[in-house]
């Protein structure tokens, strides 16, 4: 009878433990990037842009009425981009002190999203904490903060997560519109006159769309930072799956 040496036994044991660990990873997370954040649905928020103050100014803390002086170069968090008007910034994320500043008072960083993704339980609790009716058995939540597109199946207050994909939403100044939308139409190839590009697996909503990343060989950037002109960009396999499975009339939440 053959006997295992100590080294061989350890190798086999490590292999078995690795297989067991992989089997415990839910399929919707197997291709996503950690860390996975678990939080209360009330703590889920749209993208908070890291930003720099462009010039010295005085503003008022909305919660307390206290005057605060900001200096050029100060780092703040931009919680409402609002391309054409007054912006809302957060001075202290722990105390949630908010101020209004002029449109040109701050400049957002390109790499603004939070690394990782929410845990499955957080996603399910978040969408089921809201009244979300869809004309189809599917609904989609695009998390601008986590740069993820999440597909649910079911009905109002009873949605179950079936797919999660990394995505890239609108860059600073071209932010993807927040709110409830509906998938209005689908085109295998949509030609964008404005940007001079052909967008594959295109599903339109509210003046924007979900589609395959228009570049070649750069899908590794998907989900790392917002970089579109307001659309939701996906990798080829994700865009193909959504196009083939998500019907027109499906409710979409961008948040």
Describe the structure.
By secondary structure, the protein is mainly β. It has 2 domains: 48-108, SH3 type barrels, CATH 2.30.30; 117-254, Beta Barrel (L,D-transpeptidase catalytic domain-like), CATH 2.40.440. It contains 3 helices and 18 strands. It has helices at 6-23, 120-128, 236-245, and strands spanning 36-37, 49-53, 57-60, 67-70, 75-80, 87-92, 97-101, 106-108, 117-118, 138-143, 148-155, 158-166, 179-182, 185-192, 197-205, 208-212, 232-234, 251-254. The strands form 5 sheets. The protein has a 5-stranded antiparallel beta sheet, with no helix packed on it. The longest helix is centred in the first third of the chain and has 18 residues, at 6-23. It is globular, with a radius of gyration of 22 Å. The termini are far apart.
CATH superfamily of the largest domain: L,D-transpeptidase catalytic domain-like
Please indicate the count of domains.
2
Mean pLDDT score, rounded?
A: 84
Spatial order of strands in the largest sheet: 7-6-5-2-8
How many distinct helices?
3
- The gross shape turns out to be globular
What is the C-level CATH assignment of the largest domain? Mainly Beta
Q: What is the third-level CATH name, the topology of the largest domain?
A: L,D-transpeptidase catalytic domain-like
Assigned CATH architecture of the largest domain: Beta Barrel
Largest sheet: 5 strands, antiparallel
Helix content: 10-25%
Beta strands, count: 18
